């Protein structure tokens, strides 16, 4: 069972551990949200699961109790030691815990093919976007159920034409389909964060589109100057051999359009032209 608020406080006190704000240590204390996370990911005993920042092991324990194999990465040395002592002996051979930075180890050391794992995790806000970018550059999970602050979730889910729409929105939605998630109140955590959260529910597309590094750099440059007409940026950054005007025209656009107004299929076509 997930740790209750009182059990969480008692465990932290026993460990002499104060939650670290810079690591985004807001520990989940609501069992309903733990169960909702597992249900959205449709976790089974046959799954290989990835968790980021397991903390005190509330979600981790629930994942392991399904019979699944769990790979996790924890940056906090004290919490890594706690999990090693408490969970590793209970689940021998199925709990693989690494100490390190999740941006450098986005799948907690697991290696395998596209669709070979699922990610179920409460992502610290500070690393959410760089971690997501790292995941999208490697083996793609079949499912991801991610606890995120609302602001990050809105950015990932943003549609063309909105101010939140950006490069990471395009990278993510080109690889994953978005399914209904679940809003999560701040009261579900200890200590209570200043913002609300959201469970993002993602499934790998049948034909996911990846963006190589040059295409990613181009898109980021376009959105860093989002008030500028796209044609002015592309003329400066692309060789004359790239038919970007024709690509825009094929999507009903001209060079006066701004980056946030360009639909995702058009960005995919531009990326393909940059990296033929």
Question: Would you mind describing this structure in some detail?
Answer:
- The chain has 276 residues and is α/β, with parallel strands linked by helices.
- The chain folds into two domains: 5-204, Vaccinia Virus protein VP39 (Rossmann fold, 3-Layer(aba) Sandwich); 213-274, rRNA adenine dimethylase, C-terminal domain (Helicase, Ruva Protein, domain 3, Orthogonal Bundle), CATH 1.10.8.100.
- It has helices at residues 5-15, 31-41, 58-65, 77-86, 128-135, 150-157, 167-175, 213-224, 230-237, 244-250, 264-274, and strands at residues 27-28, 48-52, 69-74, 95-99, 118-122, 143-149, 176-184, 189-190, 197-204.
- The strands form two sheets. The chain has a seven-stranded mixed sheet. Strands 1-8 form a two-stranded antiparallel sheet.
- Strand 5, helix 5 (128-135) and strand 6 form a beta-alpha-beta unit.
- Helix 8 crosses helix 11.
Task: Give the secondary structure arrangement, pairings included.
Layout: H1 5-15, E1 27-28, H2 31-41, E2 48-52, H3 58-65, E3 69-74, H4 77-86, E4 95-99, E5 118-122, H5 128-135, E6 143-149, H6 150-157, H7 167-175, E7 176-184, E8 189-190, E9 197-204, H8 213-224, H9 230-237, H10 244-250, H11 264-274
Parallel strand pairs: 2-3, 2-5, 3-4, 5-6
Antiparallel strand pairs: 1-8, 6-9, 7-9
Helix pairs in contact: 8-11, 10-11
């Amino acid at each position: 069972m997930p740790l209750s608020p009182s059990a969480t406080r008692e465990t932290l006190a026993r460990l002499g551990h104060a939650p670290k704000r810079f690591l985004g240590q807001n520990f989940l204390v609501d069992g309903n949200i733990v169960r909702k996370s597992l249900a959205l990911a449709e976790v089974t005993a046959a799954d290989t699961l990835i968790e980021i920042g397991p903390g005190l092991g509330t979600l981790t324990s629930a994942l392991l109790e399904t019979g699944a194999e769990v790979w996790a990465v924890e940056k906090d040395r004290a919490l890594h030691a706690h999990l090693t002592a408490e969970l590793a002996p209970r689940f021998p051979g199925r709990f693989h815990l690494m100490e390190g930075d999740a941006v450098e180890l986005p799948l907690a050391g697991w290696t395998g093919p596209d669709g070979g794992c699922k990610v179920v995790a409460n992502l610290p806000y500070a690393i959410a976007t760089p971690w997501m970018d790292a995941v999208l550059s490697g083996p793609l999970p079949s499912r991801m159920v991610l606890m995120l602050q609302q602001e990050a979730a809105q950015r990932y889910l943003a549609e063309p034409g909105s101010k939140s729409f950006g490069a990471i929105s395009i990278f993510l939605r080109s690889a994953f389909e978005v399914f209904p998630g679940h809003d999560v109140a701040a009261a579900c955590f200890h200590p209570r964060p200043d913002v609300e959260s959201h469970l993002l529910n993602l499934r790998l597309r049948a034909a996911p589109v990846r963006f190589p590094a040059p295409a990613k750099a181009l898109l980021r440059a376009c959105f860093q100057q989002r008030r500028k007409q796209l044609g002015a940026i592309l003329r400066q950054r692309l060789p004359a051999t790239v038919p970007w005007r024709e690509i825009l025209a094929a999507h009903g656009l001209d060079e006066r359009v701004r980056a946030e107004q360009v639909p995702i299929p058009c960005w995919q076509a531009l990326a393909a032209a940059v990296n033929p």
